Amino acid sequence: MKPDIEIARETPLKKIDEIARDLGIDLEKTHPYGHYVAKIDCSEIDEERIKKHHLILVTAITPNKAGIGKTTVSIGLALGLNKIGKKAIVALREPSLGPCFGMKGGAAGGGYAQVLPMENINLHFTGDFHAITSAHNMITAMLDNYLYQHRDSNVGLREVRWKRVLDVNDRSLRHIITGLGSATDGIPQQTGFDITAASELMAILCLSRDLDDLRHRIENILLGYTYSGAAFTVKDLGIAGAITVLLKDALLPNLVQTTEHTAAFIHGGPFANIAHGCNSVLATKMALTFGDYAITEAGFGADLGAEKFFDIKCRETGLHPDLSVLVVTARSLKIHGGVPEAGMAKPDMDALKRGFANLDRHVEILKKFNQSIVVAFNRYGDDTEEEINALRDHCQELGVGFAINEAFAKGGEGAVDLARLVVDTIDRKPSGELRYAYDCKMGVKEKITRLCQDIYGAGEVSYATAAEKKIKQINALGVDDYPICVAKTQSSFTSNPKITGAPSGFELKVRDIEINRGARMLVVIMGEMMRMPGLPESPQAMRIDLVDGRIEGLS
Question: Best exposed site among 217, 338, 342, 442 by fewest CB in 10 Å?
Answer without folding.
Answer: 342
